[in-house]
């Protein structure tokens, strides 16, 4: 097992994505149409024509899908590298620098606030009041995470290899991202409804490795530690998938709360 004596801080992990923004944009999974159907159902309103603030927008993976859905989207992103990549990808979508803990938005201005893979980087005692300030009455706060489907044997085996090598359990990491409503809102001010959406994509082994290594668990490691794991993991995967293609299976964990 390769671990440092002092785990990287939450802030260091949050900032680690900026140096890997292009890798993130190219290899991270997207989200299925069924997710946005579920958001609309739980919010009881369509995304088309709605004013949406996509917070922690990163490279714009979710922002682009919200825009395609017909929403009037503004993106909010704190990181330099991620914001630069966002502007390359979506030059016509407005982007404002900021975070969910202090939203650069006026009161009662949004029909939806969305956080794709991002809520766990906020401090809910700050981001919950900010969400309630910015949302219009009846507006929806939608939080979601792509989580690996560990009922798939090869995915579970990979998670165990990551745990052994890095001393961090990726399953616990994902489940700690705010999937339980008590973690999503420790203030107890929001009433969340919960949905799961299962989906998958077929990718080359090297795309999969580039995807997993764009996660903060990898980005905060030294280069030798990460490269050693990726070399060994590539061998494992090509043994299991000799044609060099695999199916990544995800369960999107979605929680939606309505503003009073």
Task: Give your account of this protein's structure.
By secondary structure, the chain is an alpha/beta fold. 41% of the residues lie in helices and 23% in strands. The protein has helices at 10-15, 21-27, 33-43, 61-68, 80-89, 124-134, 153-166, 170-175, 181-184, 205-212, 216-219, 223-240, and strands at 51-55, 72-76, 95-96, 110-116, 135-148, 192-204, 245-258. It has a seven-stranded mixed β-sheet. Helix 5 (80-89) links the parallel strand 2 and strand 3. It starts with 9 loop residues before the first helix and ends with a strand.
What would a concise description of this structure say?
The chain is an alpha/beta fold.
Name the features.
single chain, 260 residues, alpha/beta, seven-stranded mixed beta sheet, 12 helices, 7 strands, disordered N terminus
Give the overall pLDDT as a whole number. Answer: 89
Report on the biggest sheet: 7 strands, mixed
Shape: globular
User: Roughly what fraction of the amino acids lie in strands?
Assistant: 15-25%
Cross-sheet strand order for the largest sheet? 3-2-1-4-5-7-6
Structural class: alpha/beta
Taking pLDDT < 50 over at least 5 consecutive residues as the criterion, the unreliable ranges are: 1-5
Radius of gyration: 18 Å
Continuous helix count: 12
Write down how many β-strands occur, each being a DSSP E stretch of 2 or more residues.
Answer: 7
Question: Helicity range of the residues?
Answer: 40-55%
Order of helices and strands: HHHEHEHEEHEHHHEHHHE
How far the N terminus sits from the C terminus, by CA atoms, comes to 49 Å
